[in-house]
């Protein structure tokens, strides 16, 4: 039996596109409905209101954030819980390092060869700046991201990025 719904809170538009394109289809068997909200432009009060409202109607939620410069995932979760009192640690997903690392993790070999890019065996430490250095001058970052999404290999992404593999395992669990 499907669960009622899932609210996924993501930082910004790059995260939104990734989740809408690659994650929502994975959730169609588990949830009747999925909503994705960008929280970076919302106030603390608005974020907490979204979470509490969706919990009230029986929805699950996940709060997704980049690790950024935090020394570890636990510290990043603690920092987020200080900002948003209503967060449950088990509902927080930390992307190692930034969402661009997940985009790159799923890059197929053919696309990499076509673009002349050597895919690192692990994308765990890839930040936005390193990701953007991979794009050619004639290829805008937005176009590169789109190409990665169109040619995304879920299995490769799990092998190349620990936080992405963890996230997929978390989706399979019952909250």
Could you characterize the architecture of this molecule?
By secondary structure, the chain is α/β, with parallel strands linked by helices. It folds into two domains: 3-95, Rossmann fold, CATH 3.40.50; 101-154, no CATH class. It has nine helices and four strands. The chain has helices spanning 13-27, 44-56, 73-83, 99-105, 109-115, 128-134, 141-150, 154-160, 162-172; strands spanning 3-10, 31-38, 60-66, 92-95. A four-stranded parallel β-sheet has the order 2-1-3-4, with helices on both faces. Helix 3 links the parallel strand 3 and strand 4. Helix 4 (99-105) crosses helix 8 (154-160) and helix 8 packs across helix 9. The protein is globular.
Q: Count the helices. How many?
A: 9
Query: What proportion of the residues is helical, as a percent range?
Result: 40-55%
Q: Which spans of ≥5 residues are poorly predicted at pLDDT below 50?
A: none
CATH T-level fold name of the largest domain? Rossmann fold
If classified by CATH, what would the architecture of the largest domain be?
A: 3-Layer(aba) Sandwich
> Tell me, what is the CATH class of the largest domain?
Alpha Beta
Question: Radius of gyration from the CA trace?
Answer: 16 Å
- Note the overall shape: globular
The main sheet orders its strands as: 2-1-3-4
Q: List SSEs in N-to-C order.
A: EHEHEHEHHHHHH
The counted number of beta strands is 4
| C-alpha end-to-end distance | 14 Å
Mean pLDDT: 92
Strand content: 15-25%
The quaternary organization reads as single chain
Structural class: alpha/beta
Largest sheet: 4 strands, parallel
């Amino acid at each position: 039996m499907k669960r009622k719904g899932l609210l996924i809170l993501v930082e910004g538009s790059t995260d939104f596109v990734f989740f809408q394109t690659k994650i929502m289809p994975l959730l169609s068997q588990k949830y009747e409905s999925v909503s994705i909200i960008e929280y970076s432009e919302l106030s603390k009060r608005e974020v907490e209101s979204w979470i509490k409202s969706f919990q009230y109607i029986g929805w699950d939620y996940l709060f997704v954030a980049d690790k950024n410069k935090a020394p570890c995932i636990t510290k990043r979760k603690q920092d987020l819980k200080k900002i948003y009192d209503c967060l449950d640690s088990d509902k927080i997903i930390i992307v190692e390092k930034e969402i661009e690392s997940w985009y790159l993790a799923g890059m197929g070999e053919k696309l990499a060869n076509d673009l002349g890019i050597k895919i690192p065996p692990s994308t765990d430490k890839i930040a936005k700046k390193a990701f953007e250095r991979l794009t050619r001058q004639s290829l805008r970052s937005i176009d590169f991201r789109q190409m990665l999404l169109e040619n995304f290999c879920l299995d490769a992404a799990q092998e190349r990025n620990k936080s992405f593999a963890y996230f997929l395992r978390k989706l399979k669990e019952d909250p």
